[in-house]
């Protein structure tokens, strides 16, 4: 098939994009071959996954579809709320309550001919490695640290030294009010999300004694209701921040508290904002960050220009400030760092024998290692109770606890973070 | 598509497939197996296979709370260490920085938590509360006022509360050793 035309394309549809793909520029990657092949890959073969169909996701989907990506998948676990409509432009009032992924996919397909958008309404954690393996690229527009950590670890874990196709570039966008960032993560090649976890702003938290005794802000009253009063009244019952009845209860309790301390400003939406940790979303920040993410997706898919290496940050709070730098890999990163060793041992070796071998190994300099598999502890040096509980394992054969090709995570105070062993038996 | 694979060469060690042990899990394993606790603190795991839920017993050997045994519950969620562990004081105690529901006012458990801190720092912080109760960050306001204004009376109330006594109509749990 020729990249210039498919049944749904019309003359000149890709005129502008083709200016970039028909000839090499001064900054194009060495491997770039201009012409039909790259256009064919972009338009007929490249499969891209978009995670999140919210503020960033709507922009990302529109940009990708208009740049010529034609096989787009989208995952989102949320439904549309009326407060989304000011910026999530793929949704209309009639769509309130419907799943974002489904409505967004349908909108894009109606609006941009020839583009197939496959939605999944659910959690990213529902999908396994086989699912993620089918894509060439992943673009994230998420609002949670937890989801980012999960997809990052999943893509890093997927990299198989035997299979080049297993390395999926991850482009991560994020915004908070007027600030945003876009970054390119090449799992196991460049710094990953977990490498930079300590750069994150910590979520705003007020000292608990202020909340309890000297509230001065409406937020203090709301936190008093959610952190102290809810567990006191309802015990172990979990607060569901998506349940209007729960928010209503918090709002009432917080309002009474505010009145008592003569504090103004407790509203229903502030209550919801504080307990869900909502930061006001700015449509134009989303647009800038999504544009940057999609530029990177386009450049990586086509290798038509140098890609971002590897972190772009935007600070729009005071003027327009942006900064691009290379975030370095952290050697002790629990996801992409640490040491990894293939070791081959005899089938009748005990755990104790394996530990002896690790301690004797000159090149890793390990003292008092603790061992576990992804699902259970093998031997812990401390605390005393766990040492005692795992001590019987010392006499067991490693092969009873770990299958062929299985992983053992080793930690020790002498290791910067951890060592992972892949066990094979002779 | 950009040829990323070629950038991987000479990185044999890093190229090895990583285990599916989550980052939080590895971090908890590292924190726990490197705990360096004095004899006044002991951890207990109701289910030794579950590293994310356990208790810590503190038996201060000096200060106003000497002679008591104080148990704290620890609950670590999968977002650790981005989020701090959730810690509660199990018995109802008379202490300026612990309220009657067991909430604890310790800065590193909330506003000053950082991922570079670990379980050891939290545990040492908790023990410190028994050595130096802090009247300036009150959760039990009456206890804090009393500590500030009448130290002897406060000490007397601490001792009687630890035996399961009443203070201003509130009965406290007996925590005597």
Tell me what you see in this structure.
The complex is a heterodimer of chains A (426) and B (177). Chain A is of the alpha/beta class and 426 residues long. In chain A, 35% of the residues lie in helices and 17% in strands. Chain A has 14 helices and 13 strands. Chain A has helices at 15-21, 36-45, 55-67, 100-111, 129-133, 145-158, 208-213, 218-234, 244-260, 268-275, 283-302, 351-360, 384-390, 398-401; strands at 47-51, 71-76, 116-121, 137-141, 170-176, 179-185, 311-315, 321-325, 339-345, 370-372, 377-379, 407-411, 419-425. In chain A, the strands form two sheets. In chain A, strands 3-2-1-4-5-6-7-8 form an eight-stranded mixed beta sheet, with helices on both faces. The radius of gyration of chain A is 26 Å and the shape is globular. The mean pLDDT of chain A is 91. Chain B is an alpha+beta fold. In chain B, 28% of the residues lie in helices and 14% in strands. Chain B has a four-stranded antiparallel beta sheet, with helices on one face. In chain B, strand 1 (41-44) and strand 2 form a beta hairpin. In chain B, helix 4 packs across helix 5. Chains A and B meet through helix 6, helix 7, helix 8, helix 11 and strand 9 of A and helix 1, helix 2 and strand 1 of B. Chain B: Its EC number is 2.3.2.34. Chain B: It comes from Cristinia sonorae. Chain B: Residues 23-167 form the UBC core domain.
Could you write a compact summary of the structure shown?
With 426 residues, chain A is of the alpha/beta class.
Chain-wise SSE layout:
The complex is a heterodimer of chains A (about 425) and B (about 180).
Chain A: H1 15-21, H2 36-45, E1 47-51, H3 55-67, E2 71-76, H4 100-111, E3 116-121, H5 129-133, E4 137-141, H6 145-158, E5 170-176, E6 179-185, H7 208-213, H8 218-234, H9 244-260, H10 268-275, H11 283-302, E7 311-315, E8 321-325, E9 339-345, H12 351-360, E10 370-372, E11 377-379, H13 384-390, H14 398-401, E12 407-411, E13 419-425
Parallel strand pairs in A: 1-2, 1-4, 2-3, 4-5, 9-13
Antiparallel strand pairs in A: 5-6, 6-7, 7-8, 10-11, 10-12, 12-13
Helix pairs in contact in A: 3-11, 8-9, 8-10, 9-10
Chain B: H1 12-15, H2 23-33, E1 41-44, E2 53-58, E3 70-75, E4 86-89, H3 119-131, H4 141-149, H5 151-162, E5 166-167, E6 170-171
Antiparallel strand pairs in B: 1-2, 2-3, 3-4, 5-6
